[in-house]
Hints:
The chain has six helices and two strands, in the order βαααααβα. The protein is mainly alpha-helical. The chain has a single domain, classed as 434 Repressor (Amino-terminal Domain).
Amino acid sequence: MPIRVNLDRVLLDRRMSLTEISDRVGITLANLSILKTGKARAIRFSTLDALCRELECQPADILKYEPDEKILAKAAE
Length: 77
């Protein structure tokens, strides 16, 4: 999937643990771990809103679009 999750980098920059953000946002540690490792298939806007609020960041700080070069090359044909 071309969407990358940079939650670990944002947490590191804020010197915050996954447990701390879990407590602040009210999301289980297991669900945040799935998001952090990039295994999540979706994220609710309310979750993204809560993360951005507590981390004082923008959605683009957490999520990044990195298209597959093969797909881009095929689309250009």
